[in-house]
From TrEMBL, chain A:
Keywords: ATP-binding, Nucleotide-binding, Transport. GO terms for biological process: peptide transport; transmembrane transport. Belongs to the ABC transporter superfamily. The keyword Transferase does not apply. Residues 26-279, 307-555 form the ABC transporter domain. PANTHER family: D,D-DIPEPTIDE TRANSPORT ATP-BINDING PROTEIN DDPF-RELATED (PTHR43776:SF7), TRANSPORT ATP-BINDING PROTEIN (PTHR43776). This is ABC transporter ATP-binding protein. Gene3D superfamilies: P-loop containing nucleotide triphosphate hydrolases (3.40.50.300). Coiled coil: none annotated. One of its GO terms (molecular function) is ATP binding. It comes from Mycetocola reblochoni. Residues 283-302 are annotated as: Disordered.
TrEMBL record, chain B:
GO terms for biological process: transmembrane transport. Belongs to the binding-protein-dependent transport system permease family. This is ABC transporter permease. SUPFAM superfamilies: MetI-like.
Amino acid sequence: MSEQPTARAEGAAVPAEDAAGTKPLLQIAELRIDYRAQGRSWSPAVRGVSLHVDPGETVALVGESGSGKTTLVQGSLGLLPASARVSGGSISYSGVDVTGWRDARMARVRGNYVGFIPQDPNTSLNPVKKIGQQVIEAVAFNERTAASSQEHIDAALESLRTAGLANAERVFHQYPHELSGGMKQRALIAIALAGKPKIIVADEPTSALDVTVQRVILDHLETLRTELGIGILLITHDLGVALDRADRIAVMQRGEIVEHGPVRELIANPSSDYTRRLLAAAPSRHQGRLAPSPGLQPRTPGEGIVVRAEQLRKQYTLRSAGGRSLVNALDGVDLVVRAGTTHAIVGESGAGKSTLASIIAGFATADSGTAWVGERETTSLSHRELREVRRDLQFVFQNPYTSLDPRFTVAKLIAEPLRAFRVATGRAELMTRVRELLRAVALDDSYLQRTTAQLSGGQRQRIAIARALALNPRVIVLDEAVSALDVSVQAQILQLLVDLQTELGLSYVFVTHDLGVVRMIADDVTVMRDGGIVEHGTVQDVFLSPQSDYTRALLGAIPGTRFATV
Amino acid sequence: MLHYAALKIGRALFVIWAAFTITFLLLFVLPAEPVDLLFDPAELNTIPEDVRAQVAANYGFDKPLLLQYLDRLGHAAVGDFGTSVQSGRPVTQALLEVLPSTLILSVGALLLAVVIGFAIALLATATRRPWLRNLLESLPSAAVSVPVFMFGIVLLQVFSFGLGWFPSFGDGGWQSLVLPLVTLAIPVSGPIAQLLVRSFTGEMGAGYVVTSFAKGATRGQVIVGDVFRNASLPALTIAGITFGNLIAGSVITETVFARPGVGRLTQGAINTLDIPVVQGIVVFVAASFALINLIVDLIYPLLDPRLRASLAARTS
């Protein structure tokens, strides 16, 4: 069943090398891809897309979820799922038309001619094989003449070094679970480079990584492009990343390219409405805090402090190959949230920001220290008393796809806290309140009987917010509440939050990794790292004159800042 | 690592002990007069009282229950389950005599079932023809739903009486092993195949598979080189658990094909209410079940580096 990799090298039908100088590395022309819908009908996912990548060029393909960008990538690599088909157009590499090539023939193009960097480094490496073995495979599958195993090892180590892993020998003998996310992504870059490809297709290569790691990886890709003269097709949902990194940008919406051009042209003179909306929604391009929508009646929030934390400490025991070690998830953290304001807690993964949020909400306990919600001390309460605190403090979670019960209707979801606390008695009263809440998050009554499967991500998060509002809390803790959403939806939800705050006098504790979002919604900000507080203050102060190097590094790594003032 | 092994061995010993205790309760405590079970029911009323008392004393039925239990447990721990009521021979000896033939049958059947399971899963994953895939995926449930005896009889009809390729009974040479092996393996292969098909399908959608395709691997290389090992891990567990079914299945198979073995011994012991033998068999089956699962547990860390790492961390 399996061909020997060395046997394939002879007479491999790789696109001719001499053609590379004249033809684009990748040329997609009028490509159409359909998915099998119900019965015998097909629904289009990519509708006549044309795109090309020249040597030494980075082209960014920007689109939100469902725009068809991933399908386009799968199509160009010949990795479409069985339920999809190419129904028109062509894909050619250096002038060689590969449309409709059989799987075995396409396998010679992949790795050899086009390298691929996947989205999530944490799932994209085989967990039971050592990194070295996985890179060696990439070398062996794509070599032009048969080589000895020592040559394979040397080539693999070389590739790991090129990908920016300084201690390549050590990584070579490690398993994926022993590496950090950034190192895994570098290993994947090494795999993509191992076949000495002419072009690299990177599908959201950094969206699973922290912003500072993202910056290093993207910098490295840029260096590789210059040094090796390869072309890069960068697929991203983040317009900021595209603006920073690409020579040309193609904007994709509902399976079509709606805008295509050099970066400066696109910023200065966007031709489509969609691009204009994306540009407006990009947090990095937004100056200052979002203003409430006009025509709202602001409620003056009560004075004083609604949430306070003092010297919170929490330790976890971490078991690793080196033995037991204690990790300070929180190392004496203070927090003050003023009434009617938004306090952002920002940091990278492992900073302790979610731990802090869940201790304040009473979901987790602290080893020492005290937290108050209003006048009540939450760190020493019984379960029954904590329940009462939750009337005042509600939580909105990161992933609207998993935090709502899929079997509940919208009406039932929103009514749940009302029933649990016996706030509304009687069906009529209950439904009146549910409708009221639904209107508060800008959805109409037609949503009442839907289940979450019939809602988009943004609509789901609106329902989650409506549910949090049900008990008229004074504080809402939002844990990465907009991170899973597309930028244009994210902008709408942020606007909704600002409007609700104005109308109801709410206070938010806003946990996020995205400094761009902080600027749009927060009044105060606390920057966390490794369980400690690096810096805190008003958004103005922290953004304009950051005191710590770490804050400066975070601010510098926000994608899209390069053109933020254009 | 040592801690892990000790934990798993302790669990295995607990299972064996529990099996012994439960059979003791069922066979020696619950019957009003356990000694009555030692005699032929037809002659029970003609047995003189002093003979009964003598026999009861022999078997220790006159002592307090706790003492009886500890006495039997102590003997069982060194492999002594008393003597068979029917034949008067030690239970352990009777078991050991038929053990090799059952062992060959059940281990062979387990291996065959695993091979069948993998064959179905590999073919279903490798094929790009939807109809073939659907057909292969429907095989496991068909295999489970056909009763063992039924399957054995059909095989006998076709290959033994019809074609005359294999003998219909006995245990002479490898030819006599083929039909019982197949009969026993097919139903057991069902759940294994079902699980494997599902886990192969799941792993084919994993991120690292895309990476491998992008490296330039062919479908075959991806299945053999990447998916196989990751997808096989859960099958190991089910194979261990299935071993219990195999022992149960061997009772029927050995009867249908008239082969000597633990299955036949069990059938005989139950028919004649040979209580020491029944208890010996139950404890033996529990022990082999625990042993197989212990082996599975100990193999796991060797196959999965992640588990190995977390075990190494726990003990250091």
